[in-house]
Amino acid sequence: MKTLKVLFAAILFVIPALSFAAPVPKGFSKVGIKAIQEDDVKFTYMSNDGEIRLNCAHVYDRPDAWDWDVWCGKGTNMLRVFRVHFLAQQFYSAKADKSAIEILYWVTDRDQVPTKMFSSTTTWLQFKGKVLPEKLEFSQGVENDYAYLTLEFTPH
User: Fold this and answer.
1) Cα 125–118–6 angle (5° rounding)?
2) Which of 9, 11, 16, 138 holds its CA 20 to 30 A away from the CA of 75?
3) Would you say residue 9 has pLDDT above 70?
4) Within 10 A of 38 (CB to CB), how many other CB atoms are there?
5) Adjacent-strand bridge partners of 107
6) If residue 17 lies in a helix (H) or strand (E), which one and from where to where?
7) Cβ atoms of residues 133 and 155 within 8 Å
């Protein structure tokens, strides 16, 4: 019975988590998870037609799970609420003298009732030598791709 419980837990938690991860490029090994502070990121909401642009406030709600609460358009009649999972991991290949950053950027639209809608992406960036980019910007489609939530990340 205990074996069945362990198998059930693995199916429920481990296997779905693996489906979101992209494979590590050949020859790279993990350097570590990039420490991210609230001031390192900025979120902006924009409709695809450019008519609506909302500034966003955010709180690093669960640093242990890399989860952020994001509110766009606070104080307006267009408030949008999102849960963002954002993680930056660094990798290095000594043999090829290359560095890489894996970015996980997943957005859950908390305004969708009764079912929360989400979209996700995993991005790999590879560089010659040991490079730390000055700024990275990622956008994720929200609201059935009628708008997007942009994340601006300044690594340190």
Assistant:
1) 90
2) 138
3) no
4) 11
5) 84, 119
6) helix 15-20
7) yes
Residue count of the chain, please give it.
156
Single pTM value for the model: 0.78
pLDDT of 131 reads 81
**Which DSSP symbol is given to 79?**
-
The string of DSSP codes covering 94-130 is TTTTEEEEEEEEEEEETTSSSSPEEEEEEEEEEEEBS
Closest CA to 58 of 75, 38, 78: 38
Task: List Cβ neighbours of 92 (8 Å cut-off, separation of 6 or more).
Answer: 28, 29, 31, 98, 99, 100, 130
Instruction: Please report, for residues 24, 124, 147, the alpha-carbon distance to residue 102 in angstroms, rounded to integers and kept in the order given.
Output: 9, 5, 24
| CA torsion angle 44 48 51 53 (round to 10) | 0
Any idea what DSSP says for residue 39? G
Token pair 């500034």: residue: 55
Angle at the Cα of 138 (from 72 to 93), degrees rounded to 5? Answer: 145
The tokens for 119 are 């979209």
Check if the beta carbon of residue 34 is closer than 8 Å to that of residue 92. no
Rounded Cα–Cα distance for residues 43 and 149 (Å): 7
